[in-house]
């Protein structure tokens, strides 16, 4: 089993906006827009533990928040630091070996493993000759390399898999490597609330942490525990059992979702409603689609995906927002973003918990929640995008004028002037004032006052004003 390249995932979080594909060099700026590190590296990752990975050519190292190189670029792949350590690879993706370094760059575990995952100092998952085991921070073997798969320890147990020809069986071991749950299951899920679901010959049941069956293998499908109950399917119908395996709600539903805030969404004959933990229907099955309860409200839809409209019900099943909205997002601080109209003239606005319109539907796009007291909105149309920000009353704070923008974070929002191919990026504050310069071809998001920025190579920097 090969580990997915570590930094390829991380870079996506640092490159927030980027012009059309081009060769870039990356550097750092602070919240004043001042350049801390001139663009010089081929990639810069996410800061963690005070250091960020960077790539120069084909090699990775680490810089600090001033841009100073703290660990020279000598590795072929790295992870961000976690709990003071970084997983590092020496060699190519197919045949390279993984090891572990500390924040000073000191090699703690020599790179000799086919894969390595650091969980804690006493539990490091490693692969050798396509078999998995565990070692400690000193390299001492904790669990022998004999397993075809294994999880990290959780509350003293590690779920393991062993292959035998074409078949494979799952069980669990303790920290001494002793098998405490016999390898007999075709599949074993992780423990939740002291129990785990298991599967054998297509049937599911429950076991405790000693491997004792607390239910027979009676069910065709099983969900994870939620609020003390577990949705299970038998002969095409869903019901609920408790964590002892006792049937609490009978098998009568075509579908059943996990409980949320004391209610489960259920379906029968193509229609949805809600039940409580006794199985009592609190909302008649009259809806064509629903979302789980959040903050005492659930969104419900009348009609199909194309022409249906959404409304909202309360915990008593009463309609508090009449279904008339194309989309309603979840409520945040008593407000929800909602879309009204068809594809040609649909506009976004905001409603409260009673359905009263707080912000008139007028925007081509609106973020699903306000962040730092502002909603991101788009005026114009999708061929002529104009981005800005409004407050929860609908008052325009940042006039829609930018070719691109996003949420505020720590008082700053990214913006673009010009088109996606040749436009320039920078940041504005909540007064709409540009902080620093609009000159970057790529910008990330601020992390404790530092942001990754990029410039195309072989291109002179141009200052652009809105």
Low-pLDDT regions: 1-14, 460-466
From the N-terminal CA to the C-terminal CA, the straight-line distance is 50 Å
Helix content: under 10%
Radius of gyration: 27 Å
Biggest sheet statistics? 5 strands, antiparallel
Which strands sit side by side, in order, in the main sheet? 1-47-48-2-3
What are the salient characteristics of this protein?
disordered N terminus; flat; 4-stranded antiparallel β-sheet; mainly beta; single chain; disordered C terminus; 5-stranded antiparallel β-sheet
Could you explain the architecture of this structure?
It is a single chain. With 466 residues, the protein is an all-beta fold. It is built from one helix and 48 strands. The strands form twelve sheets. The protein has a five-stranded antiparallel beta sheet, with no helix packed on it. A four-stranded antiparallel beta sheet has the order 4-5-6-7, with helices on one face.
Layout of SSEs?
Layout: H1 6-14, E1 17-18, E2 24-30, E3 35-41, E4 43-44, E5 52-56, E6 59-63, E7 69-75, E8 77-78, E9 85-90, E10 97-102, E11 107-113, E12 115-120, E13 123-128, E14 131-135, E15 141-147, E16 149-150, E17 158-164, E18 167-173, E19 179-185, E20 187-188, E21 196-200, E22 203-207, E23 221-222, E24 229-234, E25 237-242, E26 247-253, E27 255-256, E28 264-268, E29 271-275, E30 281-287, E31 289-290, E32 297-302, E33 309-314, E34 319-325, E35 327-328, E36 335-340, E37 347-352, E38 357-363, E39 365-366, E40 375-381, E41 384-390, E42 396-402, E43 404-405, E44 413-417, E45 424-428, E46 434-440, E47 442-443, E48 450-456
Antiparallel strand pairs: 1-47, 2-3, 2-48, 4-5, 5-6, 6-7, 8-9, 9-10, 10-11, 12-13, 13-14, 14-15, 16-17, 17-18, 18-19, 20-21, 21-22, 23-24, 24-25, 25-26, 27-28, 28-29, 29-30, 31-32, 32-33, 33-34, 35-36, 36-37, 37-38, 39-40, 40-41, 41-42, 43-44, 44-45, 45-46, 47-48
């Amino acid at each position: 089993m090969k580990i997915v390249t570590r930094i390829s995932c991380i870079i996506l979080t640092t490159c927030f906006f980027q012009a059309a594909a081009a060769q870039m060099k990356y550097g750092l700026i602070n919240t004043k827009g001042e350049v801390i590190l001139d663009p010089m590296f081929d990639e810069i990752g996410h800061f963690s533990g005070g250091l960020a990975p960077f790539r120069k050519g084909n090699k990775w190292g680490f810089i600090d928040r001033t841009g100073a190189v703290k660990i020279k670029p000598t590795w072929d792949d790295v992870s961000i630091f976690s709990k003071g350590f970084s997983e590092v690879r020496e060699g190519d993706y197919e045949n390279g070996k993984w090891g572990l370094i500390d924040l000073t760059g000191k090699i703690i575990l020599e790179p000799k493993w086919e894969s390595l995952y650091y969980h804690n100092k006493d539990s490091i998952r490693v692969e050798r000759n396509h078999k998995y085991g565990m070692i400690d921070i000193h390299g001492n073997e904790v669990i022998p390399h004999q397993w075809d798969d294994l999880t990290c320890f959780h509350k003293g147990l590690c779920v393991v898999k062993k292959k035998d020809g074409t078949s494979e069986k799952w069980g669990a071991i303790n920290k001494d490597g002793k098998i405490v749950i016999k390898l007999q299951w075709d599949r074993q899920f992780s423990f939740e609330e002291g129990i785990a679901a298991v599967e054998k010959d297509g049937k599911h049941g429950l076991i405790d942490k000693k491997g004792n069956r607390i239910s027979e293998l009676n069910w065709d499908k099983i969900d994870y525990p939620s609020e003390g109950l577990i949705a299970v399917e038998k002969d095409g119908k869903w019901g609920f059992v408790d964590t002892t395996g006792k049937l609490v709600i009978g098998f009568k539903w075509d579908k059943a979702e996990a409980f949320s805030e004391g209610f489960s969404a259920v379906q029968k004959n193509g229609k949805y409603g809600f039940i409580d933990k006794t199985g009592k229907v609190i909302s008649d099955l009259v809806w064509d689609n629903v979302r789980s309860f959040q903050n005492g409200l659930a969104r419900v839809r009348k009609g199909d995906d194309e022409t249906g409209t959404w409304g909202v019900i309360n915990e008593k099943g009463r309609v508090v927002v009449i279904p008339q909205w194309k989309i309603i997002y979840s409520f945040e601080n008593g407000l929800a973003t909602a879309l009204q109209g068809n594809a040609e003239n649909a506009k976004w606005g905001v409603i409260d918990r009673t359905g009263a319109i707080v912000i008139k539907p007028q925007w081509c796009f609106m973020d699903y929640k306000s962040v730092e007291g502002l909603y991101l909105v788009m005026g114009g149309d999708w061929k002529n995008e104009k981005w800005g920000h409004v407050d929860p009353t609908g008052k325009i704070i940042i006039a829609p004028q930018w070719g691109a923008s996003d949420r505020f974070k720590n008082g700053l929002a990214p913006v673009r002037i010009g088109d996606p191919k040749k436009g320039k990026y920078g940041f504005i504050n909540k007064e709409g004032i540009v902080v620093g310069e609009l000159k970057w071809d790529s910008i990330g998001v601020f992390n404790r006052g530092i942001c990754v920025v990029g410039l195309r190579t072989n291109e002179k920097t141009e200052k652009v004003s809105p």
